[in-house]
Amino acid sequence: RDRDLGRDRVLRRYRLDKAAIAGLCRELGADLESLTGRSHALPVAVKVTSALTFLASGSFQTATRDSTGISQSAMSNCLAQFLEALQRRAARYIAFPPTTARAGTVAGAFPGVLGLVGGMHVALRAPSENEPVVCDAAGTITNVVAKFPGSCPNAAVLENSALARLLEGARPDGAWLLGDRSYPLKPWLMTPIAAPRGAAEERYNALHHQALAVLRRTLALLKLRFRCLDKGRGCLQYAPQKVCQIFLACCILHNIALRRRMPLELPEGLPPPRNRARPTPAAPPRADVQRGAGRAGPHCPAGQGRPRMRHPPPKIWGGSGPLRGACRDA
């Protein structure tokens, strides 16, 4: 039925173009084809487009209306099969650390930055989920930690992640992450100076804020592209484990859209994304106010460092399966 839709309508409905959708059908076909032999089994294309419609709109009613009138129970099965199939292929689309060519200079001031790290709250019928995300300078998502409840501080989630273990053990010389003040200062994590003194430290903070704008834009685009993640559309009525799968799928599809340089076509009058989750708390007070203490980056020399503050392991709701790469957090 969708063969007659123009390119713009396809992008608005599915957030991917026809070629990308056809590619997904081919890639996921072996997992989505019915094994029951029933004559009325749904085609792979219907399952893929039904799932994409839900992720793009955040509405089961919209997805079932636009997918040849299938029932909501059939729609639920389509979504579950699609998420499982896409999750198995996550490592093809989300990989950390990035290649040397992609680990470039951020905002023209931070050489050797492997990525920008920040958290995003996803509302569900339980409180929420805290989903730390790492992206590169182009907005490509390179790491996802999709298994912690929203009550976990960003610092605790990062400290108990495979990403932190990787960077503490095998980080290349001269390579860092950038994070906001909700994260603690680490030898591999550059954060803002809490109380800058003088023009040099103020300039560092300004450049740091400018660099993190890429991450803020990436998370905003993720919510705009996939409205199921936007609290303005209501909370996701799923168990936390399923929400982890939904978030991971949206990140994979976001990267596919970026690779294919697809414009973000949105319906007219669509409100901006909303996130009513409480503000991210600041990291614990820092010894020596960060001034030269342990900051090892292109603008500040390495020093003795401040006392390391350990966080107890947070409760894990259950990840959506391993990313088969260096980091296994999603």
TrEMBL record:
<dbReference type="GO" id="GO:0046872">
    <property type="term" value="F:metal ion binding"/>
</dbReference>
<dbReference type="GO" id="GO:0004518">
    <property type="term" value="F:nuclease activity"/>
</dbReference>
<dbReference type="Pfam" id="PF13359">
    <property type="entry name" value="DDE_Tnp_4"/>
</dbReference>
<dbReference type="InterPro" id="IPR045249">
    <property type="entry name" value="HARBI1-like"/>
</dbReference>
<feature type="domain" description="DDE Tnp4">
    <location>
        <begin position="133"/>
        <end position="255"/>
    </location>
</feature>
<keyword id="KW-0479">Metal-binding</keyword>
<dbReference type="GO" id="GO:0016787">
    <property type="term" value="F:hydrolase activity"/>
</dbReference>
<keyword id="KW-0540">Nuclease</keyword>
<protein>
    <recommendedName>
        <fullName>DDE Tnp4 domain-containing protein</fullName>
    </recommendedName>
</protein>
<comment type="similarity">
    <text>Belongs to the HARBI1 family.</text>
</comment>
<keyword id="KW-0378">Hydrolase</keyword>
<feature type="region of interest" description="Disordered">
    <location>
        <begin position="265"/>
        <end position="330"/>
    </location>
</feature>
<keyword id="KW-0539">Nucleus</keyword>
<dbReference type="GO" id="GO:0005634">
    <property type="term" value="C:nucleus"/>
</dbReference>
<dbReference type="InterPro" id="IPR027806">
    <property type="entry name" value="HARBI1_dom"/>
</dbReference>
